Amino acid sequence: MSARPAEDLVKQWESEQALLRQQVVEGDTEDWQRVPDFSGLQRVGGVDLSFIKGDDVNACAQLVVLSYPDLQLLYEDSQMVTLTAPYIAGFLAFRETPFLLESLQRLERDQPQLLPQVVFVDGNGLFHYREFGLACHLGVLSGLPCVGVAKNLLQVQGVNKDEEHQSQITALQKGGDSFPLTATSGKVLGKALRSCNKSSKPVYVSVGHRISLDTAVRLTHSCCRYRVPEPIRQADCLSREYLRKHFPAADT
């Protein structure tokens, strides 16, 4: 792709992001979000894309729905997809969202009683260059509450992986402890969460859509048996399992 079409595409995507960003709801909208034990929450979803090693075009788009609070698998959907949009940093959602959205729409059409009440996304929400990451994009287009949970720190808006950040991580003593990810502007874009006692490495939680940050952090912690919340962990495991089964010669 030549420089000019890429520049035009970035401008187009920036414009689309800005319009969609206006639709993000950053607060709690559901009754279950407002109670300490999330009473009324019965189904939590998780989405992920897994690629065959060396192939950044063909992927397995995965959706899982787990029961809450016991986190048992209720539904799974694995689909091989071909990504058509190029990868440009900060615009990952334009590559991945269409396929994840299709998975949710397929579920809503075929088994609406299993549609998740909240979706965990392997990626960022408001913690993003323009405060509109993958979890926001999927949330706005699906209309569902979404939570972004990233395994790696996106160094953005003045948040850096420096000594101060590392000392804050060290200060997280137990599962559930967190600290804010504050932009240069002073806005809190997300939180670093020690998700369980077993792992001292945090995850980075941010609002996707229709949930507050504090609720997103509490819910993420409640869904963690290991470092990564179960909906995302199981989506990742099942998508990799699908690739191993259907593409045994490839190293996934």
Note the topology.
Blueprint: H1 3-21, E1 43-51, E2 58-67, E3 73-82, H2 92-110, E4 118-122, H3 134-142, E5 146-150, H4 163-170, E6 178-182, E7 188-193, E8 203-209, H5 213-222, H6 230-246
Parallel strand pairs: 1-4, 4-5
Antiparallel strand pairs: 1-2, 2-3, 5-8, 6-7, 7-8
Explain what this protein looks like in three dimensions.
- With 252 residues, the chain is an alpha+beta fold.
- It is 33% helix and 23% strand.
- It has helices at 3-21, 92-110, 134-142, 163-170, 213-222, 230-246; strands at residues 43-51, 58-67, 73-82, 118-122, 146-150, 178-182, 188-193, 203-209.
- α2 (92-110) packs parallel to α3 (134-142).
- The longest helix is centred in the first third of the chain and has 19 residues, at 3-21.
- It is globular.
Helices and strands: which structural class?
A: alpha+beta
Note the gap between the termini. Answer: 27 Å
Q: How large is the share of residues in beta strands?
A: 15-25%
Chain-averaged pLDDT = 95
Shape descriptor reads globular
| Major β-sheet strand ordering | 3-2-1-4-5-8-7-6
Number of domains: 1
Q: Radius of gyration, rounded?
A: 18 Å
The secondary-structure element order is HEEEHEHEHEEEHH
CATH architecture: 2-Layer Sandwich
Instruction: Describe the sheet with the most strands.
Output: 8 strands, mixed
Helix fraction, binned, reads 25-40%
User: What is the count of DSSP helices, taking H or I runs of 4+ residues?
Assistant: 6
Total strands? 8
Give the uncertain stretches in residue-range form: none
